[in-house]
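Internal QA ticket QA-208
Title: Verify multi-chain structure generation after dependency bump
Assignee: T.L.

Test input:
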Amino acid sequence: MTGPKMIFIVLAAAILVFSVLAITSRQILRAAIYLLFVMVAMAGLYYMMNFQFLAAVQLILYAGGIVVLIIFSILLTSQINSRLALPKGSHLFFGAITAIAGIVLVSKTLVEFTFPATQVAPITTDMRTVGSQLLDTGVHGYALPFEVISILLLAALVGSIFIAQKKKT
Amino acid sequence: MSLEGEIPLDYMIVLSTIVFFIGLMGVLIRRNLITMLIGVELMLNSVNINFAAFNHYLFPNRLEGHFFALIVMAIAAAEAAIAIALIINIYRQFATVSVDDVDELKY
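Actual output:
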């Protein structure tokens, strides 16, 4: 058992256990905290794959942004110490059937398929490369998606303010 | 760093498949809008593992999967903001966030 393998097993076990807990916990605030743990473990996976910037964005945006947003909406809309109703038996049954069938089918197909890897020498994934490619307009440049995403975020911001505001009567 | 020898690509994609379907099951079995949103976030996250893993294992000479994952994260943030605005608006109108009780189109 080597170091990276052990870290991967710990992270994968954390992701699986906490994601199951996040969808089965009957206390809604706990479900949000389990989601936070899943996201932190996924940031660890990105660190293992040498994507430091992606891991940092995962921590800032998901753990620091989306989970806090979800917790705020829980505090605004739910009674904290009330427990969620148990899912209906038929929902649970068909949900579990769908999930297990999907996992088996997709995993089988993906494991049997051999993905050809490129033989070109790898590049470094440090912050300098990421930044210069993100704002490059040439080949392998991502300036256009970057600008489109900024417009989308602005539109989402304005839209969510408009939706959540009180209607003047 | 020789991650390829230690952990095959299959481990990563099977892990992300399992998390994706756990999130799907969460959307299917829960009746509360916020917990359904948690399931959707799990699904979006699992797809990001796929992007990063394919980038790292198959095409380490470019950063396309990395940027796809970044863009998915930005869209997920926008989606969560809109969803929570909708949930707050629904709560204001119906005083509940359970999907079974929100069954009128025109209030």
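Spot checks passed. Residues 35 and 79 of chain A are 19 Å apart (CA to CA).
Status: verified.
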